[in-house]
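Budget justification aside, the reviewers requested a transparent look at the raw inputs and outputs of the sequence design task funded under Objective 1. We therefore reproduce one unedited record. The lines immediately below are the structure tokens for a 380-residue chain.
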């Protein structure tokens, strides 16, 4: 098969084909249809590398329908094949680097979501845009009210329009915020329709209902987790899931020196923020004996709330993944046993470190006493 790569930019597509170690064809076009003579059904089939991006799913489907073998490239690992090498990065160069990697069999392949999960991801993207727009309008209305000396009462976003309608606003303020309130009413209506569609989609996904048995994990968190992970079995362990979501600390190890930094923040930022938000809710539970709550409270006492919440988000991702893998609902006793065992190991490690430090301090004191004796002898 031919070795081809496409660099998908916002307004153009760079085409490059490599054969026998050299570039045999290049082209820059405005749309995928303009490449039908090179990659269409009548052309010889090709292995075509495309970087994961917004339009990659559509391009992947079209190339597959044309009889080609699309290869979705993991953008987090393209540097290993020379993309961006020596500070030179253009669409033309990137397409050539990818095409040469295809010929050498060195393409870092990314996972392609199943069609059902692609649809779920897009529906969640639409809902997220509606929620963010509504939040921005609500903040604007509250700011305009404060500028008129009016402090609007706290309420949920779903009840904001009705609460404003019941509030006694002066005519000038009401006329000023009226366009925003009308838009908010429309957004509320569209959000209600979107939530119904999401519940219909989730009804066909038993795993989503399974994940919702975890405290504070609702339909949005569970469906987002499923739409990103797609298939639990493609991860060998929970640590890989945390790393995929960017919830593990960055590490720089040189020789015996090991440095851990902040979390990498790789992967899907929206799901990561949802998990962190969920964990804040778990931390703030009152009079709860849930093992996740007890675990995060214990970590918060040692490291503070922010570090504890991120650590719980990583742990929660592992719990959700394990539930999905095993097809089991949330079992507090099992999670509590794992948490207690983990805290026990941590306590044991702390005790061992304390004993080692105590031994080191004793040795230091002994050396100091020997030095003092030698110094006394010299003076004598």
């Amino acid at each position: 098969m031919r070795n081809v790569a496409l660099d998908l930019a916002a307004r153009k597509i760079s085409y490059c084909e490599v054969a026998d170690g050299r570039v045999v064809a290049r082209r820059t076009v405005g749309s995928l249809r303009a490449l039908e003579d090179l990659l269409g059904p009548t052309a010889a089939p090709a292995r075509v590398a495309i970087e994961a991006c917004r339009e990659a799913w559509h391009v992947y489907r079209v190339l597959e329908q044309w009889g080609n073998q699309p290869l979705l490239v993991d953008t987090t690992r393209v540097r290993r094949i020379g993309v961006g090498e020596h500070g030179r990065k253009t669409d033309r160069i990137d397409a050539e680097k990818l095409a040469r990697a295809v010929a050498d069999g060195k393409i870092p392949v990314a996972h392609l979501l199943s069609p059902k999960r692609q649809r779920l991801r897009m529906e969640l993207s639409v809902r997220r845009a509606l929620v963010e727009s509504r939040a921005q309008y609500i903040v604007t209305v509250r700011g305009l009210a404060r500028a008129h000396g009016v402090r609007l009462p706290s309420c949920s976003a779903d009840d904001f329009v009705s609460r404003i309608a019941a509030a006694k606003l002066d005519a000038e303020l009401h006329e000023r915020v009226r366009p925003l309130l009308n838009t908010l009413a429309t957004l509320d209506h569209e959000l209600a329709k979107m939530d119904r569609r999401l519940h219909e989609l989730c009804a066909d996904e038993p795993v989503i209902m399974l994940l919702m048995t975890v405290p504070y994990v609702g339909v949005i968190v569970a469906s987002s987790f499923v739409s990103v992970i797609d298939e639990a079995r493609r991860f060998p362990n929970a640590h890989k899931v945390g790393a995929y979501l960017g919830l593990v600390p960055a590490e720089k190890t040189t020789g015996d020196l090991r440095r851990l930094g902040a979390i990498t923040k790789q992967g899907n930022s929206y799901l990561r923020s949802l998990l962190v938000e969920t964990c804040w809710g778990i931390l703030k539970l009152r009079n709860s004996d849930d093992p996740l709550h007890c675990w995060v409270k214990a970590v918060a006492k040692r490291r503070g709330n922010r570090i504890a919440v991120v650590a719980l988000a990583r742990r929660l991702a592992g719990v959700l993944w394990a539930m999905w893998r095993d097809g089991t609902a949330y079992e507090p006793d099992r999670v509590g046993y794992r948490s207690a065992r983990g805290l026990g190991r941590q306590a044991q490690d702390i005790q061992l470190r304390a004993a080692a430090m105590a031994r080191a301090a004793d040795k230091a004191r002994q050396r100091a006493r020997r030095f003092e004796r030698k110094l006394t002898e010299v003076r004598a």
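DSSP finds 13 helices and seven strands in the chain. Residues 291 and 337 are 8 Å apart (CA to CA). Computational costs for records of this kind are itemized in the attached budget.
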